[in-house]
Amino acid sequence: MSVEAMTWAFQVRLKPCPKSVLVALANRADEDGYCWPGIGDLQLRAGWGVRAIQVALRELVYRDWE
After folding, report:
1. What is the DSSP annotation of 21-40?
2. How far is the first Cα of the chain from the last one, in angstroms, to the nearest whole number?
3. What DSSP designation does 32 have?
4. Alpha carbon 58 to chain centroid distance?
5. Whether the predicted model's global pTM rises above the 0.85 cut
6. Per-residue pLDDT of the chain in tens (66 residues, 90 and over written 9)
7. Which residues contact 10 (CB under 8 A, 6 or more apart)?
8. 47 within 8 A of 40, measured Cβ to Cβ
9. Chain centroid to CA 18: how far?
């Protein structure tokens, strides 16, 4: 887990589903900020269904992080 990624993820303003997916990704990130969790892992960590996770990931990918 990357503490910096988790700290950053908690501060980002998002709707509940993308926020929980972002926090789940941050929780899986290594010290360089990289992670490769599967959809099943994200389902367990974020508590959303497959389709909701896919939509959230799409939103996170297309977001312009400043």
Report:
1. HHHHHHHH--TTS-----HH
2. 22
3. T
4. 11
5. yes
6. 778 999 999 999 999 999 999 999 999 999 888 999 999 999 999 999 999 999 999 999 999 765
7. 23
8. no
9. 7
